[in-house]
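User: Show me an example of a complex going from sequences to structure tokens.

Assistant: Sure. Here are the input components:
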Amino acid sequence: MTLVDRLGSGLSRPPVTVELDDIQATVLRYRPEPYYGTHVMLHMADAQAGREFLRRVTPHVGSAAEWWQAGQPWISVAISYAGLAGLGVPQDSLDSFPEAFRAGMAARAGQLRDDGDNAPAHWDAPFGSGQVHIGISIFSDSEQAWYQTMAMARRQYEGFPGLAVLIEQDFGAQPGDLNPLGYKDSIGQPAIEGSGVDPLPGQGPAIKAGEFILGYPGEADVPLPMPQPDVLGRNGTFAGLRKYQSRVGTFNRFLREHARTEEERELLAAKLVGRWRSGAPLTLAPDRDDPALGADPRRNNDFSYAADPDGRQVPLGSHMRRMNPRDTRLAILTDVNIHRVIRRSTTYGAPYDPDAISPADDETPHGLYFIFLSAKAMATLEFLQQEWINNGNFTGLGEERDPNVGLQQDGATFTIPQEPVRRRIHGIQTFNVLRGGEYFFLPSLSALRWLADDQKGAGSCRASTTTC
Amino acid sequence: MTTETSTATGSGQDLTVEEKISQLRELFADAPEVGRTALKNVLSRLASDASQKPPPPIESAGRVGSRLGKVSELTIIAPFAPGGAQRLRAFLKLFGGNLAGADDVGTVHDMRFVFLDNDTRMLFATAYDGDWDAYIDDFATKIPDFLDIIDSAWEGWPGIRSPQAKDYLAKHQVTAEGWYVANDLTVAETRRLTRIGQAVDQFLDAVGDS
């Protein structure tokens, strides 16, 4: 279903000021409802094999043109630093990429607080090994179209010498589009200035396009540093991929240990996230679930925290309030607009089973391929991991961590503000454990053509010209 | 100056306690008499302290500087721009030298502005919570003018909104060789504990009066 269909009439559309037909579809198109798709990770033996693949696939890569009413399946192409180097991108161009991107997500584990169970040493192959060069993703809103698009995509990479498929991971096809812990997810997205659609109810003011797309002014009114040459950087963005394994058994046991009835369990589950499993926010449905509200995209994100400063409805430490504090009064001077990311979360594996309570259920393969997009994705992820996920200081919670994606330490707590005194739950566990991650550059369509060009890497011509 | 991350304790990090002690002895052999005697008096205690209860390790605060637990140190030494010293002095005098407006920042424990060498250079030192550049971008969009009023006293300051601002700070920052913090508490935690303490006192006062 397209965004226009989901929201019905009245989608306000101001003029477009970014080059939508050069920007990849994934940057602006919301995840389809329902959604089906596949992530494919490729390794290329040499530059020639990589460029030939890009020449074949680029004509099929979706653009963001008219993204609000686009309903067709789409393909996206993302390239890691190892991939860019392997494609023969000139050294001075490679050097223009941010340091954290060049190092890769595994090498930045310290800055990302990816230690203990989340450390790269525990990741699934091939993540963190430097083997992943190109990531392609197929998104579709119907099973039939997904098969057709996948078949077409496979024709571009299967059976070609010099291209190895490292991962082919199907995602989506979940009943009700629920995530591995049984929640409707990916509800709140940032509104992007100049993208052609006014902010949806509750999205807050539109954020400057440069925060999400390279080549445009950001919130500080200047463009963010951009990889060079311009044809490579402009209209591109960075993507982070985080593969989480959901410990469903641990999660269900936690709910049972700390809530006596089914009703209490659902309330506790809602307090952890800030939304009922239906997606209905606790600000608008504080006492009981309201599935109709959760399903309504015009209403399910339309709130502020003005009437809930202390978190009696939505706990200050809940996942939703940490990831987007909106108008919450924080303990640290913070510009909440510069830490937002575009999220394209994709659930894989068996659907959520509320009766799975054994330790073995923790290792049933299901979880999230969490994708986030931003013109400074690496810096934003490091900020989020350090300050908003694996810390509580910014919102007066000391060392408490995010109950959804935080890495919990021994004796960790989760605080639920309530009258007359807060409830503090001891022994919260890590419910989603990290099993892999990569940083990618998501080039514009013209950059994909530039990357596919044999001449640009020849060394005899300057990277700043495209006509040599 | 370098923009690379440097360790707080330099090359001494990999040495054993015995090696460090013997290095200390050698260096103090040429020290003035008071220093030599002082070392002799406490040497056995130093050796046993250093081997028996090693202190929590000082870590990197990120790009530059050191962090101990939750609190990091930052020292910048930068040349004044022409007229910069007079401008900054006048600005600081507006508040009697006390930048209480910084309360809102929420991560800054203290700040000192020291004018050196006949107003030609400045030393700025602060203790703050967390890692080096976590909130620099936030300050650039929330309080850019206050930062630029202060920092434009420095020669070559590019402006807080400039992509070069962080490079400028890193270039002029000097990592401390030693770093000690008494309380492993952030500013936010300190304020919370103050509020809790007041509430407990009120409660105890009420109980005691009844």
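The lines above are the inputs; the final block is the predicted structure for all two components together. Chain A is about 25% helix and 15% strand.
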